[in-house]
Amino acid sequence: MTVLERFPAVLMAFRNLDRNRLRSALAALGIVIGVVAIATLGIFGNVLQLSATNELGGIGDQVIVSPNTDTGESTLSPRDVATVQRVAEGRGEAVPLVTSGAVVTGSGGQSFAQLYGLSDPAALFEAEAGTLPRQHRQGAIVGQSLAAELDLQVGSAIEIEGNRYRVVAVLAEGEDITPIRPDNAVVLPEDEFVQDGYNQVVVQANSGEDARFVAATVRERLNAREQRVSVFELGSILDQIREFFTLLNGFLIALGTVSLVVAGVAIFNVMLMSTRERRGEIGVLRAVGVQKGDVLRTLVVESALLGVLGGFVGIVVSSLAVGALYQFSPIGLDVVLAPSNGFYLLLAFGFGVLIALLSGLYPAWKAANEHPVDALRD
């Protein structure tokens, strides 16, 4: 005895579908299209979200505290700087810095550059050439774009507002999205600036969670009575990007669901026509003692088989589409193979089978409950 013979309803459903192959194939094709629509749209949206999160993930670790310009202050007070540093202890590194702008003259010409004054440039930047000092006391560190424009390298001389500096390092190109842009900047020791006080404190947190804690605590302590400082938490941008892609994913899946519902209507129609054509056959079965439940079970299994067959083919086609996406786009393999993509495959398959089942319930119920005499009379 084969496995199918142990389940007569499944065996009979297979035979019924096989008798009308073309009609069965067309009904399953609707499920295939719906499953492919849901799976590919969901996966493509998820891949976009994962790619964007990977590219922008670094920005969630940074918090920038600056004075509230509405109060007329342009620098942070020593007390504010000390508070930020205490809050950041154990959760990251707080780097106070002075910012300005000036014309920089080098051997290759002149250019306007952003000036940063800080004592520990290694906390925020990386060097492409030379070494970043842990205590910046002398010399200038130039950004990569500025070095290329003015033909600068380690050991070259630059002039800023009449003062000459020796280049001790060239910064690596900045890849993260952050207001602190090193590419067209010059980093100088703090005491080279005439102003008192810092313009900003940049907190490079250990994680996004630490960054959120630091931002919330700084707001709570420094802005309790009045808005003394502005706290710019880059992680909030990342959260908004995630929310956008979540909405986009929901919209795309909703579009795919419409096609699957249309496929369900097609299966409903196929099952209704099939049961009508087989009224005599069903009437004979009922007349020889086959129970309503057996007829109902057989017809429901037919619908389920259409859903399973269409869902399986849809999953295969969707997987091929995702493979083509990886092959013909710069998206990384780790993003394509992310476990969360499997969720959309399972969702599409399960929804396809569910729609097929629901579409076959009414025709099956109607056929099972028809009186044998009425079925044989027509």
From TrEMBL:
One of its GO terms (cellular component) is plasma membrane. Residues 254-372 form the ABC3 transporter permease C-terminal domain. The keyword Calcium does not apply. InterPro entries: ABC3_permease_C, MacB_PCD, Macrolide_Exporter_MacB. The chain crosses the membrane at residues 25-44, 247-272, 299-322, 342-362. Pfam families: FtsX, MacB_PCD. Residues 24-219 form the MacB-like periplasmic core domain. It is found in: Cell membrane. It is a multi-pass membrane protein. The keyword Transmembrane helix applies. Keywords: Cell membrane, Membrane, Transmembrane, Transmembrane helix. It comes from the Archaea. GO terms for molecular function: transmembrane transporter activity. Belongs to the ABC-4 integral membrane protein family. This is ABC transporter permease. It comes from Salinirubellus salinus.
